[in-house]
Hints:
Layout: H1 9-23, H2 45-58, H3 60-78, H4 86-96, H5 99-113, H6 116-127, H7 129-153, H8 157-179
Amino acid sequence: xxxxxxxxPALIALALAATAGAQNPARPGTxxxxxxxxxxxxxxxxxxxxxADLFAALKLQQEVQSMPDSMIDGEIARNPGMAPxxxxxxxxxKKYMTxxxxxxxxxxxxxxxxxxxxxxxxxxxxRSPAGQKAVQKMPEMMQRTAMIGAQLSQPHAEELKxxxxxxxxxxxxxxxAGAAPGPPPRTTAPPKKP
Length: 194
């Protein structure tokens, strides 16, 4: 769990969506969306250095390397039925979520969202005693925050389940109505009324 808090939420969502998609594959013939490549803006050497310095302060490379186990263990905790597939999912994530694959995109992401001065300030903070404590404590704080959220939402889970079930029925009816054959096409003109 500790690695989840230091990576960007979009990265985590992408990886979790991919693992969820592996569990619930689309119907055959359904196109699978692929991410659109984005044009990377040219970064200066000093921007790249500032991002690299922040990543070093966050120990991000080490976190990326340990992330697959943490992510899958978290998913299994929420869905124990996935336990028999743990080794497959971890191996799959480790194959594709590597530091060499992610670092260029993460560098671009950070450089496009923070100024060079902000990156340097963040790196300085994360190297400070308070920053190191934040790096150390944040995973536990995020886990506890998630637990508080789960405790608050759990008593109302049935409400969501009913809403989702109603929506699923509605979508099914729409799909059936669209796929249901209509009246056969007329081959002759209708009779004229006198």
